[in-house]
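Here's my example:
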Amino acid sequence: MKEVMAIIRPKMVTKTKDGLDFLGFPAMNAVRVMGRGKQKAILNEIKLEINETNLTETDGAMRYIPKRMLSLVVPDEDVSLVVEAIMKINHTGQIGDGKIFVSPIDDALRVRTMETGDNAIS
């Protein structure tokens, strides 16, 4: 099993969710996150008032950008399909398209039924 974690633009969540659901991967977690890549910010992409001073830097007016982090655990044989789908749906060729990380998962347990391993994620 692997965890596929994708950090994408907020406006792409519905398309990504629908695409993964169509492929048979409806289960995922989605979290609002703030971050930035090497470009340090995407200025003027959004209008956002940030009241927390730790998220704003006065020198250079760097701002963190709102993103969405999707996380899903899939069997090893489905990782390529899931990653390719996320890439196809989210690729615009512009800075800020996102990142995808793939990590190994040692085990999964479904609390309700006590199933483990691949049975717990299917």
